[in-house]
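Quick one: structure for this chain?
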Amino acid sequence: MSSIIRIIVGSTNPVKVNSAKNAFSAAFPDHTIRCEGFSASSGVADQPMTEHETRLGAQNRVRYCAQQYTKTADYLVAMEGGVDEFEEGAVTFAYVAIINCKNNTLMTGRSANLPLPNKVFKRLKNGEELGLVMDDLFNTSNIRQKGGAIGLLTNHNATRESIYTQALILALAPALHPEHYS
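Got it. Here's what it folds into:
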């Protein structure tokens, strides 16, 4: 019989909840994964415009969850999508944050970069959110709870869910091999 791992995700967005469930199912295949979404404040802008702000948003969300659920969950998880401009141009990416409730360890990870068209980045700098801009450009509805800008710009070869899942799996390395991360 497999043991249960209980996860609280700092969002009710089904993409983020599914990403956490997929990542933990892959990392802990002999366990039953129970994943629940919880609305957690990021404490940053709705559209984070820097790498620092994006990371802070993920960490704020997971710490907000810790105030509520440390005693009833095994892991707390948060994801924050953001954008920034680097030497190569404007990109979107995500930061993930995980708290292992058994030892109160914070693990942080980051996804790969997706280049953004200049016309998209200009609209973001004018205060619009990426999901809404993408919905407008591609005539979609609520893409941020589906494949996201990543899905649209990669012809669904990658999706918002797939990059969150990958980033979470990578961030879990210290939990999988704590003997090497002391």
